[in-house]
Task: inverse folding
């Protein structure tokens, strides 16, 4: 089997198993305490996870903390939400402002796009 | 629901294109989307592969990113009831976006939203990947179009309505700070996992003390 197919199937298998594992954990433990615990932490997990995703996808490049065109997109997103823009428009604003900031940056620095 | 489709579709096309750039065949790219159905884990897998990483490095990055799915399906587990194979199938519907929209404060997870949104996003994700893998070359690099900004924008849209709550706001800020501090020191994928653990710790502490978390 080629390397790319190995990676493909490995990624799929890990993802399927880890998603399924969560669904079976409470069944295995059969405890009401587990359910209560989960109900308690969910309201915290939700903003925590979304916040973590936003930060990682905006300010990181593999191992490094970076500030680049994506920050402009995030600021534009927050402004669009602040001014009650429709959701689909907000997504387009994010993409367009990021693309524009990137193009301007490359133009100014003469970098390769 | 329509905006979710727009975002997932665009990100799916970008994945299809980048997967081909990383050396996957179109069939492999589509298979990865059909089995993994988790954008961030897929982008991590192809970026480690493209960077010449070992299989172990791929598995570590994917597992680090997919581990939050375990926490997500565990919290949604009461809404995933049924025979073992039903649980197995339903758990695959629990992804970042469906989990975030299906949660009703004080009531738990809405099973119908999880399944309905899960199925719809699955179809969009897989077909968009096919489009990107087969025709992405006509569009060029997704970065040029700012597509990489759409996913964080979507998560910002999902987060904003939850920030009316004081505890949610504190959690979001503390986790953001923790993740920024961690990014440079741990492998890709791990910061998000740390963020989830941090949020759980804040949750346990806050509900133990039964008092608002200090700001």
Result:
């Amino acid at each position: 089997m080629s390397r790319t197919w190995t990676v493909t199937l490995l990624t799929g298998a890990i993802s399927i198993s880890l998603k399924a594992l969560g669904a079976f954990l409470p069944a295995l433990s059969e405890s009401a305490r587990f359910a209560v615990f989960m109900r308690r932490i969910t309201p915290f997990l939700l903003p925590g996870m979304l916040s973590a995703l936003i930060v990682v996808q905006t300010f990181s490049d593999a191992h490094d903390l970076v500030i680049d065109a994506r920050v402009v997109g995030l600021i534009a997103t927050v402004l669009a939400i602040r001014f009650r823009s429709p959701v689909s428009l907000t997504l387009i604003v994010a993409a367009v402002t990021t693309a524009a900031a990137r193009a301007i940056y490359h133009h100014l620095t003469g970098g390769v796009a | 629901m329509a905006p979710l489709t727009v975002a997932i579709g665009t990100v799916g096309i970008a994945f299809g294109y980048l997967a081909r750039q990383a050396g996957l065949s179109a069939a492999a790219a589509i298979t990865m989307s059909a089995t993994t159905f988790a954008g961030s884990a897929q982008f991590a897998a192809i970026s480690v592969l493209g960077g010449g990483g070992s299989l172990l490095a791929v598995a570590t990055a994917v597992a680090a990113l997919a581990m939050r799915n375990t926490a997500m399906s565990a919290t949604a587990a009461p809404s995933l009831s049924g025979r073992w194979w039903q649980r197995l199938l339903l758990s695959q519907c629990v992804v970042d976006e469906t989990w975030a929209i299906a949660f009703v404060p004080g009531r738990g997870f809405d099973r119908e939203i999880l399944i309905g949104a899960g199925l719809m996003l699955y179809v969009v994700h897989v077909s968009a990947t096919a489009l990107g893998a087969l025709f992405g070359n006509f569009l060029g690099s997704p970065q040029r179009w700012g597509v990489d900004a759409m996913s964080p924008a979507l998560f910002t849209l999902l987060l904003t309505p939850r920030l009316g709550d004081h505890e949610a706001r504190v959690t979001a800020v503390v986790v953001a700070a923790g993740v920024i501090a961690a990014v440079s020191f741990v492998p890709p994928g791990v910061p998000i996992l740390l963020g989830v653990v941090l949020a759980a710790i804040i949750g346990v502490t806050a509900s133990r003390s039964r008092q608002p978390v200090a700001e």
The longest strand of chain A covers residues 60-61. Chain A has a mean pLDDT of 89.
